[in-house]
Amino acid sequence: MTRVTVWLGHLVILGAAIAAAVLALGFLAGSAPAVHVALPRFFPFVSMSLAVDGLSAFFLVVIALVTAAAALYGPSYLAGHAKAPGVQTVALAVFVACMALVCCAGDLVTFLLAWEGMTLASWVLVVADGSEENARAGLLYLVMAHAGTAALLVAFLTLAERAHGFDFAAVRAAARGLDGGERTALFMLALAGFGAKAGVVPLHVWLPKAHPAAPSHASALMSGVMLKVALYGIFRFGFDLLAPAGGRLPASWGWTVLLLGTASAVIGVLLALQQHDLKRLLAFHSVENVGIILIGAGVAMLLGGGRGARPLATLALAAALLHTLNHAAFKGLLFLGAGSVLARTGVRNMEELGGLARRMPWTAWLFLLGAVAISALPPLNGFVSEWMTFQALLLGGVRLGGASGLLAGVAASMLALTGGLAAACFAKAFGVTFLGRPRTAHAEHAVESPAPMIAGMLLLALACLALGLAPGWAMRLLDRPTAELLGGAGASAAVTSSGPLVLSAGDAAAGLGATSISVTASAALLALLAALAWALRGWPRKAPRRLAPTWTCGMTPTARFDYTGTAFAKPLRLIFAALYRPRREVLKETGPNPYVIRRLGYAGEVVDLAETVLYAQVKHWVTAGAHEIRTYSTGRIHGYIAFVLVTLVVSLLLFAKA
Amino acid sequence: MESSVAHLARTALQAALLVLLGPLVTGFIQKLKARLQCRRGASLWQPYRDLAKLLRKGTVQSDTASPFFRAIPVLVLAATVTTAAMLPVLWAPSGPSSLPLGDAILLVALLALARFLLAIGALDAGGAFGGMGASREMTVGLLVEPALMLAVFSVAVSGGTTDVGLLAARREALALSWTAPDLLALFAMLILALAETGRIPVDNPDTHLELTMLHEGMLLEHSGPGLACIVLATHVKQLVILTLVAALFLPLGLARGAAPGELALALAAFAVKVVLLATFLGLVESSYAKLRFFRVPQFLGLGLVCAFLALALRVL
Q1: Where are the domains of chain A?
Q2: pTM: predicted TM-score of the whole model, two decimal places
């Protein structure tokens, strides 16, 4: 009975996702005016509404893509080992609906209600399996999410007070009249609030704990989509609602976003490299990719609206938005792949896996495809958006000159470092999990996942291929959002010059010619050469081919000879020791003879500096503050009533208007 | 915009030239090293003989390897040869082409793809040497990338594009009137070239001792024609890196048309440039010891600092 209900629930979600995708794609491809729907009056003091423009529709496409894959994947996954699958299905539906609602909200109240619903529904998914560890992760998630919401609330209420209403149109009009300092303060509050949800360093600590805890298709939605909904907030407030009249954003915004993005990208991937838990590794990569998106957004902010740099700003924003979609596709795929491994082996620690490529071939090859995409290697989609980000940084750096130009150069080099680290990380993750010999019985006896789960992964894999090989068509989707946020002609005019298969980036105004690439052509050339080499290899004569055990210096090969993930990442642990602060303990137990070791124990870990330094300090302050006010916190009710009364009177005196 | 057919023909010819000459450059460096060590050394053509020998041999494959293992040498070779099609060897492009392939970022990314696939293959066989080689090679690769990107950007800033062919064509006019940023970027590029071509002081191409090998460690489980593909890819990659350095910093003597005299001049210029850079590799390899692996980041850090200064001088 429950199984049928769960399937029905997921099919409803799938249907809704397909419908939303079709509508949003139609909206993006056409030129229909923005949709505005008033909602029934729910609160006496505020009228709520939905407003869908190009940016909303684009994010609806992102949500719908991963939701469709998750809905296909979910029922079989939950059938395996889930507690309360019915509750999880309902929570999933609410979660997805709230995310869509955030992107379609037409006023601050609707936005905030949907935002809160999204947080609570995803919290239910995080704690669904009822374990102690997940409950703690869920608590941290709730605390961080609400700290972010508090920052948003301050920004929203200030705006609403200025606008005398909650409607986005009123807010937009009121924001034109803000002075520079106020505008920047409000933006920074919004950035902090959305950044806490998006996992921007140093507000990322909850993310690698909470995302892996949810069931894998929900992890895919949280990492692939929920973070993007927070980025939607940054785009909406930074480029649209809070933008000044001329459209030229303050330089401090661009600098902040660019610096935060660069830091998130590098720190996220460095921490990901040292994880053994497959899902936690993927969660840290979400921090990295949010950073890459913010790099694009930061360059767009620095260039936006000023001195004829509009095509360049469009290029940067298009890079950020395209990476949003790309990351949703490949991160969703990777989380579903990790979930497939988890469902079949019950293990998330890659050191206990190995050899799964022969046992679960579909999962393995689809995971490899996602790994190539996320490592920004051609010819898949991750490369396309990173190429655009590189071009935006280079051309933008030349255009900006001075300190901003140098910052752009540094960001470009850090982006290159990020790409290299991601490739190393996924060589490790894929190699240790899927290749070599199985290290435990869990891996030894694994079998391939059922067809619906494969279908979910296949959908996202096809999206990765299509977005990589025909990027020009993806640019068409970005036309409306970029034109809305920056003005000008839109993404495909700025980035495609000769047909949808060729991307080009240039700054004609600065006398710089365009750089063009065709990922499609190079992929075709790659395939042609591979076919040629394959044919040539067998050509001289049909040489014999035989199988033999791997050479292990004369000993019998066992799984103990396989390189472990910990060993693979060791060079980087030593090179970046200042950041990792690695701890290493080797326990030797010897018998009477000191040369004969009976037992050897090894323990090692790396720390997240943000967690150990920054958060430990904050915790220390909070505890000290609590101690300080202890004398006033007597537990007697009249004392508290007196406090409330005094606060109320003082507030009224301070803030009440004549 | 030149005609597509002529463009394709030129691209194919240049790629074929790099593939065919790749082993010869290795042979030249080996010969040079031997002469510097007062040995006669093997013939210049030895790398070709080795390839022919490998192609005739049978294959022994690890029984733990996945089916993908067989495809890896082919894909590595294909990715490397694709980069060979992206460089101006004899001709400078007259303008943007309808089939743009020459972007430096794409070139670096394709080399990274080849490295990634090789690392996957090394982990596939399930031996510790493969894993060790893969781990070290990926580490060196990711340390090279940021410096390489900065060096390429510092040149791209002056040329206004990251298309290597167009960059060479535009900079040909001011060739050899180097300014400080050019010299710094060239110095950085030479350091990075040593790492990317897997030469001393970063890696030792002659060793099969497990403690010192990086690149070779990943090749241990490949044999026969598959190994031939990877070895050929290594030769081609070396020449691609040298040609990239030449295109960025010595864009001299590139032909515009197909006149025989012009072509002969371009070929001679290409030969001189490659011999010059190959001699540099051989000389460094003969006069330095291999660095301890954990000293390599400092060596590459020197390249990073120089490349950063080059970019700073250009942008500020």
Answers
A1: 2-486+515-521, 611-655
A2: 0.95
